[in-house]
Specification:
Helices cover 30% and strands 15% of the residues. The strands form seven sheets. Strands 1, 2, 6, 7, 8, 9 and 20 form a seven-stranded mixed β-sheet that branches. A hairpin with a 2-residue loop joins strand 23 and strand 24. The protein is globular and about 70 Å long.
């Protein structure tokens, strides 16, 4: 196969900066902007093209948990404690308080740099979800107004434009493969000093040095789900988002939390479902669409007590004795206190004679509600503007006349097997403190890299927050040039390029290896865990490490990138099993079930890390962030405008 780029596998490029941001998605861009605005020299590295890269690069239709926006009736403290309570404490109190406290500030910042957040052309004037004074649009709960509808396709280009205005060095089409580290000169800690990567078109070797490093890469993917025929649509997020950062952090001893949590698959086009939002349903982007059965009979909505809601307006209001409800990106059913209106469960509908298939029916809905779902929400959500909205339009779909078939129930676009799982819905990630710093000095985390991450607003708010704190931290640290760890850099170079020089027709492709890992995880780390089964799975994965990796081949830098991703998928799979072994007790909120559950174990976070060849774990109290989040936030953010410090 002819490669259209000049080979630079024998070339090395060096970069130095105060703050190095790894990952150019929403969290990464906001982190780089914040650090640069504090006067730091900043470099941001992105595996793809930064203008549309990342999980939210192509768009977003709603911004959750913006508790300080002008219409909100819920305080950041109330909202964060609700999110914690709804998950029995298994959530990231620090990052979600930052999201609730700063989300509106970040949304306002994005508006100033060119993103669209208001209905300034009065397209939806008079709608129940529109505030006429501010021209903001709200979603889900029209009374609490904590979630805003936005034109997310405009956001990423605005961020990139701002990066360039600030003079941030943007390094695109570069896969970071390892974090550089040293023993800290102050205390017995590991210090992150930069990163190593390769250019995915030319193969050039790249070495980065920095005083602070921000990990802003995606959560892992393709652990249980993979299709060699359709690899680009195996998961909800883009193909390049597979958890490289988790694997790199693990190798230098970073701590991870909640890695044992996985959920039955929700989105995957690997032969079992349709692309997200391309079929009818009544959740997330489509909420609160009407649903009809095969005979045209409307499926009733009901409140949390089972009372039938007779009007459309009741679908977007809390119950009479309820302050607000939680709905949006979380896939878990909310507790009674926070549960919002929902269509009657299928089990009841089938007994009442409702016939499959069901359809989303926008034809009889209020016109502006129909227009905002089909014309805006479906159009602005990630990966939907062209593949879903435009393609349906070209095919003749008219939401005023036509209905769209549902497949599966709820969020799903199909029905998955118990062993087909995803790291979705507040999954595991880097453990963080109030600076969003990890246990590795100088290594910060933001967005999907954090444990219990969720949605666009969380990524933007934590990214900006990490950028500020990383900039402050950089003032107290020095640069470590490549000469300080030349042997480790040489080892990484040898590891990276080895697959290019093996006999291609006799080797193992990245697809073969990814398929084997996914099948192994389905067999040994499915819905029900048991110690001997987990240990057997871990042994298989370690065997892949020793027997398959030396056989792996690549024919060009792009294919090498795909292979190195699968190396990281293998590492993350081992992390998941190690965390599953460390948690001895079943936990419903983590969707973690062991047949050999030890019911005497107390509830706590189980935090894991690698030290040499050992995997260590420790229990951390669920309230480790402190009970008074407002006071804690103020303590760590005294220089932030408007923060109360007493």
């Amino acid at each position: 196969m002819k490669w259209h780029y000049k080979s630079e596998v024998d070339q090395t490029y060096y970069y130095e900066s105060d703050v190095l941001v790894l990952g150019g998605g929403i969290a990464g861009c906001m982190a780089a902007i914040a650090a640069a605005e504090k006067g730091c020299k900043v470099t941001i590295v992105e595996k793809a093209g930064i203008k549309r890269s990342g999980a939210g690069g192509s768009g977003c239709d709603h911004w959750e948990n913006a508790a300080t926006n002008p219409g909100s009736t819920v305080t950041p403290e109330e909202l964060t404690h609700a999110m914690l309570d709804d998950n029995d404490g298994y959530n990231n109190a620090i990052s979600h308080y930052i999201e609730a406290r700063e989300g509106w500030d970040r949304l306002s910042e994005i508006e100033k740099i060119g993103g669209k957040i208001r209905d300034d052309v009065d397209q939806f004037k008079g709608a129940a979800f529109r505030d006429e004074a501010t021209k903001l649009l709200y979603a889900y709960d029209y009374e609490s107004k904590i979630t805003l509808r936005i034109w997310g396709t405009t956001f990423k280009p605005a961020m990139v434009k701002r990066l360039k205005e600030l003079g941030v060095t943007i390094v695109e089409h570069t896969m970071i493969t390892a974090l550089r580290s040293q023993h800290s000169e102050q205390g017995n800690k590991t210090l992150c000093t930069g990163a190593i990567g390769i250019q995915t078109r030319t193969g050039a070797f790249q070495v980065f040095s920095a005083k602070s490093v921000i990990m802003a890469m995606s959560r892992p993917a393709r652990i249980w789900l993979f299709s060699a025929a359709y690899p680009g649509i195996c998961e909800f997020r883009p193909m390049s988002c597979i958890g490289d950062g988790h694997a790199m952090g693990w190798r230098i001893g970073a701590e991870f939390n909640m890695m044992e949590k996985s959920v039955r698959a929700q989105f995957s086009s690997s032969g079992r479902s349709f692309p997200p939002y391309s079929t009818g349903n009544n959740h997330n982007t489509w909420y609160p669409a009407s649903i009809i059965d095969a005979s045209g009979q409307e499926v009733p909505y009901q409140d949390r007590d089972g009372n039938i809601l007779k009007t459309f307006d009741e679908r977007v209001r809390p119950s009479a004795d309820q302050a607000y409800f939680l709905k949006g990106g979380n896939i878990e059913q909310a507790k009674y206190k926070y549960d919002g209106p929902e269509t009657m469960p299928y089990e009841i509908l089938s007994k009442k004679g409702y016939k499959l298939p069901f359809y989303a029916d926008l034809t009889e809905m209020p016109q502006l509600e129909r227009d905002v779902i089909w014309g805006m929400m479906v159009g602005e959500e990630g990966k939907t503007k062209i593949p879903v909205l435009e393609n349906h339009r070209r095919a003749g779909f008219d939401p005023k006349k036509h209905v769209l078939q549902c497949y599966g129930v709820g969020w799903q676009s199909a029905a998955f097997l118990p062993q087909e799982r995803q790291l979705f819905g507040l999954p595991g990630g880097f453990m963080n403190d109030w600076h969003l710093e990890t246990n590795i000095e100088g290594l910060y985390a933001a967005g999907d890299a954090l444990f219990a991450s969720n949605c666009y607003g969380h990524a933007a708010a934590t990214g900006s927050y990490a950028g500020r704190h990383a900039a402050d931290g950089a003032k107290n640290r020095k640069l470590y040039p490549p000469e300080r760890d030349v042997d480790k850099i040489s080892e990484e170079r040898e590891r990276l390029y080895a697959p290019l020089y093996r006999a291609y027709d006799q080797g193992m492709s990245w697809k073969e290896l990814n398929h084997g890992i996914s099948k192994t995880m389905q067999l040994y780390c499915g819905e029900i865990k048991e110690e001997s089964l987990l240990k057997a799975g871990l042994a298989v994965l370690k065997d892949y490490e020793s027997t398959c990796l030396p056989m792996a081949v690549a024919s060009n830098p792009h294919e090498l990138m795909r292979l190195l991703e699968v190396y990281n998928i293998l590492t993350v799979s081992q992390m998941v099993i190690e965390a599953s072994l460390a948690r001895k007790k079943s936990c419903e909120k983590l969707e973690f079930f062991r047949s050999d559950s030890d019911e005497t174990v107390r509830e706590a976070f189980v935090v894991i890390r690698k030290e040499g060849n050992q995997v260590l774990h420790r229990n951390v109290p669920l309230n480790y962030a402190g009970d008074d989040l407002k006071k804690q936030y103020a303590h760590y953010n005294e220089t932030i405008k408007g923060v109360e410090t007493n």
